[in-house]
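Title: Prediction job returns without error message
Component: structure pipeline
Severity: low
Priority: P3
Assignee: unassigned

Description:
Job completed but the reporter wants confirmation the result is attached to the right record. Sequence as submitted:
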Amino acid sequence: MPEITTAIGDAILPHVPALARLRRIVFRDWPYLYDGSDAYEAEYIATYARCPQAALVIAWDGGEAVGVSSCLPLLEETANVTAPFRAAGLDPARWCYFGESVLLPAYRGQGIGVVFFERREAHARSFGAYDHAAFCAVQRPDDHPMRPPDAVPLDGFWRRRGFARRAGLTCTMHWRDLGHTNETDHLMQFWTKDLTGDAA
């Protein structure tokens, strides 16, 4: 297994290019079909680089980053991400938001994804301020024309990590799909976990 390290706060800044590169590679595939831009990546990742409680968990093969996973306080996220929690009567200050986990295909199936979740949960618990963790995943129809015939949802993997699909808790994110000229809305479903024990 590659070496896995954690960068926190200011230490994230040197790894911003690696995160941007991996996001643009991995998210081009199903189900995100993300046709990203350097400008958007720079703006998005700046949120992590300026947050003292943010963390990147990085998988290394030699000197090259082959996978990155991120987290930060939910309160540091954009309004479209925090608003559904407020609307549901959930205090964003008690939540840690797990951003992406992006891993190059050659390194999957080695347990790295499990470590990504374990390290982020340990980071969230270290502050004693977060009772829950959450992430969101894009929702695509089963008959989407770009869905690979062998596509396997990650639902089972997430459930084994203790997360549960939170019915009714969704948000909308915007990006340009491959083959499109404009950004479009994408429905994102939240999955949550009670960091004190059971799935929320």
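Comment from assignee: result matches the submitted record. The chain is about 25% helix and 30% strand.
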